[in-house]
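Example S7 (structure tokens).
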């Protein structure tokens, strides 16, 4: 009996160790921070070209990120004033946090961009993030063209990798805008669907971009696709360099469609990593 029991104990220890290794291997950096999936969907043959793992505490890396600052609604009736202070954006414990703060009804927040520091035409970009909670929040991870090759918005294009309205904390939107497909015409190319735990755990959001299509991924699975119609820039302006933007807005035509929670004091968009493959 003693030998048999000892054998079972050893087997249990071995199985537990193997399960722990498998679990940790399945998690990305920071995988224990949230309850969401860390699955990736990097296309075969691509290698890492640019990334930020947010390993150095303090301000976001100034060689990779710049700020958009100010208020005035940002064309969408948003309530926040964007700053470049550590109150609204900082790196700590391996993640980047964009923090919106309510001070007596006046909101401040952060909007970071890679404009003039990093830009890409084609590739695969992946972000692991936890969305904020709170009615009135409007987090967005998206891309704009470095130069208005085909004219002002939306003629030169916009790619929304993911955005969310805080009044619907488990509903994500993936969208692209062009001259022929945009909100003004009511026909933007989009998919809106439920993602359980979008605001309570970390999830991976990916975009594969090549001359033939835009393919969105969520937690390693295909989510949304837009094929190049081949009919010109009005439908497909996505043939020139774009840069990345991450921001946390408050209110506006999208985030504020059900108002802003008057009792909300702060909200946080937390990003584990940003990786670009080519």
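Recovered sequence:
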């Amino acid at each position: 009996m003693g030998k048999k029991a000892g054998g079972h104990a050893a087997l249990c220890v071995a199985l537990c160790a193997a399960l722990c290794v498998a679990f940790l291997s399945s998690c990305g950096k920071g995988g224990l921070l949230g309850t969401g999936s860390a699955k990736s969907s990097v296309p075969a043959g691509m290698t890492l070209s640019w990334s930020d793992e947010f390993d150095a505490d303090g301000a976001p890396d100034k060689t990779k990120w710049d700020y958009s600052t100010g208020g005035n609604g940002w064309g969408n009736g948003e309530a926040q004033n964007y700053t470049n202070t550590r109150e609204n954006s900082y790196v700590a414990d391996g993640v980047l946090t964009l923090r919106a703060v309510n001070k007596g009804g006046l909101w401040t927040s952060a909007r970071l961009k890679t404009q003039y520091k990093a830009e890409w035409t084609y590739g695969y970009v992946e972000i692991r993030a936890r969305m904020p909670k709170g009615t009135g929040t409007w987090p967005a991870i998206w891309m704009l063209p470095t130069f208005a090759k085909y004219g002002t918005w939306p003629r030169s294009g916009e790619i929304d990798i993911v955005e969310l309205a805080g009044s619907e904390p488990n509903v994500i939107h993936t969208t692209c805008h062009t001259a022929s497909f945009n909100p003004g015409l009511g026909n933007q190319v989009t998919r809106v669907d439920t993602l359980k735990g979008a605001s309570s755990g970390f999830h991976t959001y990916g975009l594969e971009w090549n001359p033939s299509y835009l393919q969105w991924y969520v937690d390693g699975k295909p989510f949304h696709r837009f094929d190049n119609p081949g009919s010109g820039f009005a439908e497909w302006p996505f043939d020139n360099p774009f840069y990345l933007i991450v921001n946390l807005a408050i209110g506006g035509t999208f985030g504020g469609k059900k108002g802003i929670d008057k009792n909300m004091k702060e909200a946080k968009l937390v990003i584990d990593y940003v990786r670009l493959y080519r």
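Notes on this example. Confidence is low (pLDDT under 50) at residues 1-36.
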